[in-house]
Specification:
Layout lengths: L11 E2 L33 H10 L4 H25 L3 E6 L6 E5 L5 H6 L3 E4 L4 H13 L8 E7 L4 E6 L4 H11 L6 E5 L8 E5 L2 E4 L3 E4 L2 E3 L2 E4 L9 E4 L4 E9 L5 E6 L3 E8 L5 E3 L11 E6 L3 E16 L2 E9 L11 E4 L2 E12 L3 E8 H8 L45 E8 L3 E4 L5 E3 L2 E8 L5 E9 L4 E8 L4 E8 L2 E11 L1 E8 L3
Parallel strand pairs: 3-4, 6-7, 8-16
Antiparallel strand pairs: 1-22, 2-3, 5-6, 9-10, 9-13, 11-12, 12-15, 13-14, 14-15, 16-17, 18-19, 18-21, 19-20, 20-23, 21-22, 22-23, 24-32, 25-31, 26-31, 27-30, 27-32, 28-29, 28-31
Helix pairs in contact: 1-2
Length: 520
């Protein structure tokens, strides 16, 4: 813990476009902290690896350890044989149970060498260097590949290079191989419904950039994105991760008054229930139980890493240059520009996101955070946790989710006005201009093919968009939408079977709404 006495140097805050605050201008070359070592078992294998292998390959711990030892010996044998066989080496692979090492040879006379090493020889036509040359040809021609071609790889078992094409588009794979000029017979085209994309984790404390300019820190993962500080961005602002890869969009933001924001991430990013500890590891987030005054609390941010102290007061108001923010929590933890929006934890419980403060981490200081439970409640969000209690950030490909449980539509929404909408499933919420919510309950539902009906009832004078969105395998895409007229939006669409959600978007005005929809 690095906690120092307070040195008041005036209250600072970071607002996009403003000189004061915990937001930094864009810069290149953030340093990465060295990674720490994991505890190892007595046999040299990390316990976490043994546990994961046992789980995913349906092995006992003893079988997992034995397999790892066999694989280690096999790797040494392959290294030796690759040198001894030279151009005749055609690759190697283990049997399905990991017990037998197979080694391909292009010269039958080398079979004895393989047997002497304790492996099983396999006669092939091409050595692995020839296969690598085919790969190089394909790589050079990769820019001319059809979008129906998702990739290619060396398959030593079949002694060929495999080109993957979408089902029904195998001809595109063959044309690509022929155009690259590779030897006939060296390439196989295989149909595979694969659509690879890069995948990145959303973790508390990690840096992100706003409109390729200012830098802030991730607060906590929520279903579909993350929460951070409101002064970091406005609805519509686009974000990139610390790796400068497109990440998401600010869906809602409040500053001043409050200091919170919600960023929705694209399908390349997976919100995780952890916080970066800036020491090569992560800290789990297992809930959001509020800690009392006097409790210890630690903050993670992309400028100064993890810093700890105690909670000094709650319901604090700060007069920032940009305006007054109320309901903050005061601490004696230091922070610096760029830490804005970062995660605050008490043990494994989420507490809030960094707002602003005074001082720095050289002299010490005071820092305020926006309580996370208010952000979750105001935006109807679900915290993603490490203990598996939160729903997944995206629908699993193998199913497991069904239509949400039916809830009788209330006779009147909050406020006492009669609702104009009824349906099998009903949800209520609060909406305002610039804010958006996903229903049901921030999640999604599966439904069979057919007609979907929905109705949204909002106060007169508000303008709200109701969107039906379908999960495409990478992200949710809008397939139907309707805006309120005289306080009511009605939507009807014939849709294929799949995973859907409703998105309620505030365009003008504010108030309570009721959403009723069909579910099959």
């Amino acid at each position: 813990m690095d906690r120092r006495r307070i040195t008041a140097i005036g209250v600072l805050v970071a607002a996009v476009g403003a000189a004061a605050a915990v937001t930094l201008p864009s810069f290149a070359g953030d340093g990465a902290a060295p990674r720490g070592g994991a505890p190892a078992a007595s046999d040299g294998v990390a316990p976490v690896v043994v546990d994961a292998l046992s789980r995913d390959l349906s092995l006992s711990r003893e079988q997992a350890v034995k397999r790892l030892k066999t694989e280690r010996r096999a790797a040494g044998t392959v290294t030796r044989l690759r040198t001894e066989l030279g151009d005749d080496y055609g690759g190697s692979w283990l049997s399905a149970d990991g017990a037998t090492l197979n080694v391909a040879v292009a010269d039958p006379a080398q079979a004895a060498t393989v047997r002497a090493a304790g492996a099983v020889p396999k006669q092939v036509d091409r050595g692995v260097r020839e296969l690598d040359a085919v790969m190089s040809r394909l790589d050079s021609a990769g820019g001319r590949a059809s979008p129906d071609v998702s990739g290619w790889y060396v398959d030593v078992v079949t002694n060929s290079v495999v080109v993957l094409a979408q089902p029904g588009a195998e001809a595109a794979g063959r044309r690509f191989a022929e155009a690259s000029g590779v030897p006939a017979g060296s390439v196989r085209v295989r149909a595979a419904a694969e659509a690879p994309r890069p995948l990145f984790d959303v973790r508390g404390g990690d840096a992100f950039f706003i409109n390729n300019a200012g830098r802030c820190s991730v607060g906590f993962s929520v279903v579909g994105g993350f929460v951070t500080a409101g002064h970091c961005g406005q609805p519509g602002d686009r974000t990139t991760g610390a790796n400068r890869i497109a990440q998401g969009t600010f869906a809602a933001s409040s500053f001043p008054g409050d200091d919170w924001a919600v960023v929705e991430v694209n399908g390349d990013w997976t919100p995780q229930g952890v916080v970066n500890d800036f020491n090569g590891g992560t800290v789990p987030v297992n809930g959001s139980t509020e800690a009392p005054v006097g409790a210890s609390v630690c903050r993670s941010g992309s400028t100064t890493g993890t810093r700890c102290g105690v909670i000094q007061a709650k319901n604090a108001t700060v007069n920032y240059p940009e305006g007054t923010v109320t309901g903050l929590t005061r601490t004696d933890v230091c922070a610096e520009p760029g830490d804005s929006g970062g995660a605050w934890l008490s043990g494994d419980q989420a507490q809030g996101v960094t707002s602003g403060g005074s001082g720095d981490c050289t002299q010490g200081g005071v820092t305020f955070f926006q309580p996370v439970n208010e952000i979750l409640q105001r935006n109807n969000l679900t915290l993603v946790t490490a203990n598996g209690q939160s729903p997944p950030s995206a629908p699993p490909a193998d199913g497991g989710a069904t239509a949400p449980p039916a809830t009788a539509a209330p006779s009147a929404p909050p406020g006492g006005e009669q609702t104009a909408c009824t349906g099998q499933v009903s949800r209520t919420g609060q909406i305002a201009a610039g804010r958006a919510q996903n229903q049901p309950d921030g999640r999604w539902f599966r439904t069979a093919a057919g007609s979907q009906e929905a109705c949204l009832d909002a106060p007169e004078g508000t303008l709200v968009a109701l969107q039906l969105q379908r999960f495409t395998g990478a992200s949710f895409q809008t397939v139907a939408s309707a805006d309120t007229a005289d306080g009511v939006a009605r939507l009807s669409a014939d849709t294929p079977a799949g995973v859907y959600r409703y998105r309620v978007v505030g365009l003008d005005g504010a108030g309570a709404y009721t959403l009723a929809f069909s579910a099959r």
